Amino acid sequence: QVLLVESGGGLVQAGGSLRLSCAASGSHFTITTMGWYRRAPGKQREVVAGITSRGTTSYADSVKGRFTISGDNAKNMVYLQMNSLKPEDTAVYYCNAGGYYSDPYSNFNSWGQGTQVTVSS
Q1: Residues in CB range of 21: below 8 A, 6 or more apart
Q2: CA dihedral of residues 65, 119, 43, 2 (deg, nearest 10)
Q3: CB–CB of 78/13 below 8 Å?
Q4: What separation in angstroms does the CA of 38 have from each of 69, 75, 94, 98, 102?
Q5: What's residue 59's pLDDT?
Q6: Which residues of 39-64 are buried (b: 16+ CB within 10 A; e: fewer)?
Q7: How many angstroms separate the CA atoms of 27 and 98, rounded?
Q8: pLDDT tens column, 5-55
Q9: Are 66 and 59 in contact (CB under 8 A)?
Q10: Does the pLDDT at position 3 exceed 90?
Q11: Contact present, 50 and 38 (Cβ < 8 Å)
Q12: Measured in whole angstroms, how far is the alpha carbon of residue 42 from the centre of its chain?
């Protein structure tokens, strides 16, 4: 089992910044993709940003130019730097990781518990 733990959420004023972190732990696994999702009150979960183990990144249009996703393969960590935060960014942010276990081989898709980000106006 690959466990994901997010941290770094909190309360910030509009225009401020936060950096979210996600740590993956387990045994004999390789992560191929990691991403950040968020769920605002009364809304469906949506993709915020993603990154592959090769370093390819993608962003939702709503955060492009403001958020930056990065990863550290050696540490099994992924980060989300959030700048110029807006009240509409308020949500629970979830880390996701996909990959595979080695010997025996099997795929996995894991989710963290989420971390609250609240942006005040």
Answers
A1: 6, 7, 8, 77, 78, 79
A2: 80
A3: no
A4: 14, 23, 6, 17, 30
A5: 98
A6: eeeeeeeeebbbbeeeeeeebeeebe
A7: 14
A8: 999 999 999 999 999 999 999 999 999 999 999 999 999 999 999 999 999
A9: no
A10: yes
A11: no
A12: 20
How many residues are given for the chain? 121
- 40: which strand partners? none
Q: Phi, psi (5° rounding) for residue 79?
A: -130, 155
> Tell me: the pLDDT tens digits for 80-115?
999 999 999 999 999 999 999 998 899 999 999 999
* Under 8 Å between Cβ of 36 and 107: no
Q: Give, for 107, the enclosing helix (H) or strand (E).
A: strand 106-111
Pairing of strands 67-72, 91-101: unpaired
**Pairing relationship of beta strands 10-13 and 115-120 according to DSSP bridges:** parallel
Amino acid letter, residue 16? G
**Quick one: tokens of 24?**
């993956």
